[in-house]
Amino acid sequence: MALGRRRLLIGFAGAGGLALTGCGWVRESAPPSTSATIGFDPPPGTHDVQARSRATITVTDGTLRSVDWTDETGRSLPGASSPDHRSWTSAEPLGYGHTYTATAVANGETGDVTATTTCTTVRPRQLVDVSLRSANLVELAENDTYGIGFVLVAHFDEPVDRAAVEPHLEVTTDPRVTGAWYWLDDQNAHWRPEHYHAPGTRITIAAELFGLALGEGRYGLRDQRVSVIIGPAHVAIADDDTKQIEVFDNGNLVRTMPTSMGRGGTAVIGGRAMSFWTRPGIYTVLDQKDPVIMDSASYGLPTNSGLGYRTSINHAVRISHDGIYVHELAATMWAQGNTNVSHGCLNISPNDAAWFYDFVIPGDVVEVRNTGGDPLDIWQNGDWGIPWSDWLHGGAHT
Question: Whose CA is closest to 127, among 157, 162, 92?
């Protein structure tokens, strides 16, 4: 009888799903089943979601079976699931001015679970674009070549919050050099280093403005990225003391050209003071035309004023925004090298002008020394004449 009882107890202890507990026994229960949980980002009901945001869906205790994320037009937002099917991310940003509805289905231990969400994205009062240019105001193109005096210009088509924008205008150089932005006003910012660029430098500007709040309900239209290359070191030095232009190629003097610069003085014409100096300063080549129609009326000097003119000029290299050129003029060859007779341009001989026209590229440096008149200012292409300490104070955060 005792042996039989011991066998019975051993049988209970070894039986599946049973356990001895003091004077009796209980059956062990299985853990409860869990349902899949679906999470959305942006969270349901969110308004004014930033345009750069991407949609994400995550699943806890399950895997995704399907996702349908559509905008107000019925267009599906493209996206992809992770390899383990526990998350989904949109392939593009949510963008401006959309109302989204999303439905996700996930499968867990208790079967399929469905969840829905809605959200809206920010609706700008106005979209603002930026034009990335050189000092000649021409849009930069990938791998364009510029001279060592290249200045990067960011021109916004509407006023912007400088402090908000500047961190998103990223300039990198190879080899690395420190540069800084200088704001002329709320629509124009210029970037340059302390000294001229080294030949062969690659400069890359990344303007990541899409989705960025620019102030007063304005937002950035798009992102941009472009790189340019710095060419040989071309520097022309025009000295009024000698009335010669010395041209250097990578530090070597390659040509000396007699010149006749601005005659000097001022005149009041039509109530406006006109200067006839070639203003001293550091210019850069803006563009070249052969021929170009030079019309004094374009800068306020009427052709019928006695001092005005309208004429076709060959081999003209423009170096300022107010119409200063280095150009050929056979009629003043008698004065070139000894007397200033122009309205402000640098006259040179036809042979020298043809050579110079073929030699230079936009961004090459033209320094004008020892002339009279006010120094060249930044609005006329005088970026390099601003001392570096002053340039650094022109940034958005100074």
Answer: 157
